[in-house]
Amino acid sequence: MIDWRRVNELKDEIGEEDFGEVAEIFLEEVDEVIARLRSSPDPALYEQDMHFLKGSALNLGFRGLSEICGQNETDAANGQGHQIQLEPVFTTYEQSKLEFMTKC
Domains plus CATH for the chain? Predict the structure, then answer.
């Protein structure tokens, strides 16, 4: 679910000291999008939301979330946004976040 190699690469790139700040910003921004998707999902925004989530997830090593969001982004781009199931996004994010927070 988490690509720990990527997490360690990021720590090496930006330094252990700044890593916590970067991770905090990532989690805050993703939390905002997840909260909006939970409270007022809009299929017209799924392609852009999934692209943002996919990229954010890749940057911090949330591999499973990135894969789900990438597929959803493709589906939304192909006009299938109304068929996207958001629950797997929410579940994978929460599980990934818990694992990340526990081990970092």
Answer: 4-103 (1.20.120)
